[in-house]
Amino acid sequence: MLTHAKINSLEDIDWDNWQAKDPATLVFVVKDGQILLIRKKRGLGAGKINGPGGKLEPGETPEQCATREVQEELHITPHNLTYHGENLFQFVNGYSIHVHVYTTGSFEGTPTETEEAIPVWFPVDAIPYSEMWADDEIWLPLVLEGKKIHGRYIFDDDTMLDYSLTEK
Fold first, then answer.
1. How many Cβ atoms sit within 10 Å of the Cβ of residue 81?
2. Is pTM beyond 0.90 here?
């Protein structure tokens, strides 16, 4: 397990052999100049605004996970998911997560508050980055432009210590 004293920057990690504790997904629904985000009620990032998503279950593909998580968190079913790449997160406390990022412009149902999330629509040009994880402002605009990304990030709790981001 990685320890706090050993991680301060991307160079402190052997990314060729890095394995995330949890594979996960994020989905951003964008429709009519608006983006559907959630205020997380529990779990990693509770209280923050983000896209719906969560951890893969055994035997599940990232796309299946993305669909299931949006259904669970918002009671809607996304259609025609577009894959935009991945973000690898290493926390100094040892936790790590590999997030597959998707967008969609279509869904079935009405976004509904659940035990996990409160749905909130924002204009795409007024995304509340100050209420989100620090990395979101770096890569989400590229995803919303339709680009593919590959990011690596080091966090100490809510504080981003280092990152690299490449467009694919």
1. 19
2. yes
Question: What's at 25, amino acid-wise?
Answer: T
- Spatial CB neighbours of 49, under 8 Å, sequence gap ≥ 6: 37, 38, 39, 40, 120, 128, 131, 132
Distances (CA, A) of 100 to 2, 3, 33, 81, 140: 23, 25, 23, 12, 13
Q: CB of 92 within 8 A of CB of 7? A: yes
The DSSP secondary-structure symbol of 56 reads P
Angle at alpha carbon of residue 141, lines to 154 and 76, rounded to 5°: 95
**Residue owning tokens 């996304």:** 78
Q: What tokens were used for 45?
A: 């990032």
Question: How many C-beta atoms surround the C-beta of residue 163 within 10 A?
Answer: 19
pLDDT per position as a tens digit, 52-93: 999 999 999 999 999 999 999 999 999 999 999 999 999 999
**How far apart (Å, rounded) are the C-alpha atoms in residues 11 and 37?**
32
CB atoms within 10 A of CB 51: 26
